[in-house]
Amino acid sequence: MFWTKLLSRWRQVGLVWCALLCLFAVPTWSSALAADNPLPSTEVWLVTYGPGEIYWQRFGHNAIWIRDSDLGLDHVFNFGFFDFEQKNFFLRFLQGRLLYFSAAQSAQREFSSYINENRSIRVQRLSLLPEQSLHLVEYLIDEVQPENRDYLYDYYTNNCSTRVRDALDMALDGALASSFKPVAGKQSWRDHTRRLTAGDFWLYLGLEIVLGAKIDQPVSRWDELFLPSELAASLAAMDYSGADGLQPMVLEDAMLHQSSLKPPPLVPGNWWPRYLLMSMGLLAAAWVASGLLRVVNPLALVQGWLLLSGLAGVLILFLWFFTDHVAAGENLNLLVFNPLWWAVLYWKRHQAAGPVLLLASMLALVMTLLSPHQYTLDVLAAFLPLNIASGIALIVFRRRSRPVSPPGIPATGDQ
Q1: Residues 6+ apart with CB under 8 A from 244
Q2: Residue 275: phi, psi to the nearest 5?
Q3: Which long-range contacts (CB under 8 A, 24 or more apart) does 357-363 make?
Q4: Is 61 exposed, middle or buried (0-12, 13-18, 19+ CB in 10 A)?
Q5: What are the residue ranges spanned by the domains of the chain?
Q6: CA of 83: how far to CAs of 71, 171, 382, 387, in Å?
């Protein structure tokens, strides 16, 4: 009996190492772990990486770390890889069809790369039964095979963290979903997006322009787990029914590395004044250049802005109706950036051109109070003054361009 168990254990060791060799060397592999031989020494750790300095690192990252001293298994399974060299990368990105892929590498190698990037590393050992750990290991090894590793990425519903969440939920027989789906989220997807990108002036504003009302809707706590930090916090506070009754989900919680970067705020703030200040600064510079120095024709500035604004409106419509970017749908910023401004530009001498811009500006303010609700305050602060100033400039331009008639003869103009 003893020799039978020993041979069975060494068979598991050999099979796991064969699986890992196949993982990095050949395109095919079949499950090497027998379901009737669970691995009692397997440790499952949730790894959470803090935000980094590069724009795609603002939301943090996470992975699953599998350790087994008997098998010599010490690998991190990561769902957050993408390749700039993939075919049609920028076209796929624009269409919302970007491919991400899963991979596994040694924990030492992975952790070293994040430490070099000055990103924090938090690890949490999870309380899983042996058969649950075995099921998870089999699933993870299958997911990183060449034929399975690619997936269509989505910012909020299919990213590195939701993949980790779903893998753990699968291993726990749906315990995460049953715990978090009925619970209302603390913040919307936009709230989280705003607070995590607040430190990047242009990234924040760019996302506020292209993201529509869909991300302003209430979400569940389950949906909030698209963020690695939220998944880590939720599991740390969770109890579930294990082998010994109700027990904590997290058995150990430690920081392997503490970043020196300033952590993001916990809630979004009122950052619209900085964009209003930017807008006022642009208008002041335009007034100095065209009014005091007279080096620029004010009408040329209006034409340039309407051209750019209409182009931004075309981009919003394209993302909304012709791509898979679900988060870009129902975008009320179309009232600020609108392709119809090109018609206003063409009819700039018409008496209605200026009033149309002013009326649209008032509409943009009113629509923020109607359904579907969308937070647009930053965009309005940054760009609505430019629309209003353009409308006023067109009205002034028309009045100045009217021909002056001799007394007793009515003046005529464009109607």
Answers
A1: none
A2: -80, -30
A3: 357/387, 357/388, 357/390, 357/391, 357/394, 358/388, 358/391, 358/392, 360/335, 360/387, 361/387, 361/388, 361/391, 363/335
A4: buried
A5: 20-185+220-257, 272-401
A6: 31, 29, 34, 40
Structure tokens at 303: 């034409």
CB 54 within 8 A of CB 135: no
- Residue 296: both structure tokens together: 């620029």
Q: What is the dihedral of CA 103, 108, 114, 120, to 10 degrees?
A: 120
Question: What's the token pair of residue 230?
Answer: 């939220």
Q: What is the pLDDT of residues 25-62, one digit of tens each?
A: 333 333 334 444 444 579 999 999 999 999 889 999 99
> What is this structure's pTM?
0.86
156-191: pLDDT as tens digits: 999 999 999 999 999 999 999 999 999 999 999 999
pLDDT in tens, 365-386: 888 777 778 999 999 999 999 9
As given in the structure block, the two tokens for residue 11 are: 């068979």
Q: How many CB atoms lie within 10 A of CB 345?
A: 19
Query: Cα–Cα distances in Å, from 243 out to 44, 127, 129, 234, 359?
Result: 16, 10, 7, 21, 66
